[in-house]
Protein 1
Amino acid sequence: MCKSRYGRRKREISSKVIGNDIVDLKYSSSSWTRPRFLDKVFTPKEQALIFSSEHQHQTVWLLWSMKEAAYKIHVRQFGERFFNPTRLVCDLISKEKGLVRIDDNCYFTESTVTEDYVYTVAKQDQNQEVCTSIFETKKEEYTIQSNVLKQQLLKSISQIEKIDRNVLSINKTHLGIPEVFVNSEKSPKLISLTHCGRFSGFAYA
């Protein structure tokens, strides 16, 4: 049984960390059918969910996006990276909501599944309010998408928080975690960025 926000947890960097992930279903195609892919990424229980689903392709990438979004929280929370997808265990509570467990830590997820993409936001606190947005970019080049995504996020923060856009910037930590700065000073705002294929998404709290 995992320890939720109501139980004891390890010492954390932040009590309300967030993460997000998006998968372009066209861009990802059916690569999950490759030999041993499922065994490397998903637990037997997760594979059972996939094979019992009427929409297996969407379910694969739904579980994938849940793992990725929760992984981003874990890296920020504990300052460690690892590659062991089956260490992240997913449970689907409903079509939109789920839970990801990494050892004794639980993360709540909310997902949007369409014919074009799967988008997931993960939170430590299921009641936490998160501002999030998804949009399509015409060019799929990584650098262009990354720059457009950052600009869209900063524009949103500027408008909602009433902060001059010119004093906002984004820098990454040594772990690759994006952070917002105001007048070159780190902001307490937590952000998460993701893009894949034709789609990009940001979340902040």
Protein 2
Amino acid sequence: MVKKSIMILFFLTLFTSLCFAEDCAKCHAEVQADHFGASCTDCHAENEKHFAKSAVFSSDAEGCISCHNEYDNMLNSKMHTRADEVRYVSETFDSYDSKFFEKNCSGCHVSTCSDCHGTHQIEKPITDTCIKCHNGHATGTDYTGYALRPPAEKYQRGKEINGEHYLKMLPDVHFEKGMNCADCHSMKNLSEGKTLTCESCHKVSRRDEHLTHKNLKCESCHSAWGHGEYGTTYMCFDNSRKIYDQYAKKLKTVGDSCVRSSLLNEYREMPIGVDADGKISPLRPFNVFFTVFEDNAVVFENKMISNSWAAYSPHTTQRGVRGCFSCHENDKRLMVLQNDIYDLKREGLDLKSFWNKEGQRVYNGSFLNEKQIETTKYKTDKNKKMKTGRWQKIIKELE
């Protein structure tokens, strides 16, 4: 009797689902979906208006979370809230334009499960999906071996990704081995706010270089390159068409009335500092300058509104590493450069050098302190002996 009742209930449910699907198809004939046999109403619950959007975060993605409840914390993840970006933009731009984030930065945040997984042909996201948002000079496209070209018109050539032109660079070894972003950045980890590290998969060998540099993040040595955009400049125009046509019409537009440019772009090893966990880490620049024109006159020009750097992880990992002197005795990477060929003061920029920590900060860590710099530059007797010993070892091996 129980078995018969279950069978009846099953066929009633199936019949109801088919009826709803047939009704939906009257208007949505183009929709083709097969998600583990789910009907339209399994995901799109009926409500007082029509049927609910199943995946939007503003309604708690009820159509998805009702089955995938282990990922309900995705609604609070940084992919959705973009808490770090909101904080940085607020600190930097709010005193000049309180709606800067809303106008220029709000497009790239996850607001629905469909952003990554598709609408009806639901799939696990692949790397091509991720770099639709994770591109530009931030981490993302670097993993696939591409770096954003400078914004000037003469550089706009080569491969195009999401409307931007890119340089071909060395890709990450994990990408070359066929790994997708989701192999490390899984739904489970994203939902729980966890981050995998290199040691999650790799056992670190006990060779001299690793034991000597145990306080460094792996990326400090194993990242092949990073993209540094220096002197990022925003120019905004209020009733200033003449000035815009003269200086900015060939630059990339940002929002309704601004353009974005930069003084310098480099594609090489990045400077180093200390991250929030106390590990020596690559840094990337966020020095931003702001110029405003009103009625074809300058309101202010080249005003530095951000003197920040951020500790980060370039996704350009290689098995090999750079030589010792790419860090040791390299004032540029240590952020203590004194004699810079770029005279920023003459450019009207209030900085001694992009690669001198004076007047700058790391917003999620710090620059190397004087003791760390002294040690890295082989100023101590211990390090001088170590340096001599290594050269003697190299010479002996060559003999």
